[in-house]
Amino acid sequence: MDARDVATHPILVVDDEDDLTQTYERLLRRNGYRVIRASSCREGVDAIGRHRLALVVADLQLPDGDGLDLVRAARAAAPPMPVIVVTGFTSQLRRCAAKAAGAAAYLPKPFEASAFTSLVDTVLMRN
Q1: What is the pLDDT of residues 56-97, one digit of tens each?
Q2: What is the value of pTM for the model shown?
Q3: Candidate CATH numbers 3.40.190.10, 3.30.565.10, 3.30.1240.10, 3.40.50.2300; the one for domain 3-121
């Protein structure tokens, strides 16, 4: 994805914790990105189907589904979208499952704001 696509297409943030989605949005907007927020797996999958997105940032555990469902939906979209999986429930098994589903990156909570924004920039420049 080139810089023009990143400026044109928003980043989707999917997390059921409103304070976290607000934090993600604030960090991303501060770096010049447009943001769409969703609070459930269903809302996230719907947004993936309706928008051309630069990136999806998805919590692994959502009240109505698994963040890996979002990874699969984003990877199946045309064009495919990269996904960063974020979770507070880390394990090697979960990391492997996220990578196997097609996640571009896996970020355990808690994390530093600079680590998050750096990872977003890296994933966007790779894709």
Answers
A1: 999 999 999 989 999 999 999 999 999 999 988 778 888 899
A2: 0.92
A3: 3.40.50.2300
